[in-house]
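Data availability (excerpt). The following record was deposited with the supplementary files.
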Amino acid sequence: QVQLVESGGGLVQPGGSLRLNCAASGSIFSINVMGWYRQAPGKQRDFVATITSDGSTNYADSVKGRFTISRDNAKNTAYLQMNSLKPDDTAVYYCNAEIKTTDTLLTYSFWGQGTQVTVSS
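Predicted structure:
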């Protein structure tokens, strides 16, 4: 079994910062892409950022220059540093990872349970 556990969400004022963490655990052989997605109330889940195992990153236009994705391969953990937060960034943030499992050596897409980020004064 594989689990992704997010942490670090909360309430922050506009212009503030938060760092989200996503820790993967369980029957992990290797992790390819790790990413963050978000879903605001009444809206679809949208792409935020991804990072490959060799550190290549990709960002949604709406967060470029404000958010930074990183990862620690030794800890199977991804991070999302969010700066200059805006009310429009309010959403549930989900971690996603493409993981090759030790039992099947097949790659599956796993999701975390989500963490709430609220930007409000």
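Summary of structural features: Residues 5 and 40 are 20 Å apart (CA to CA).
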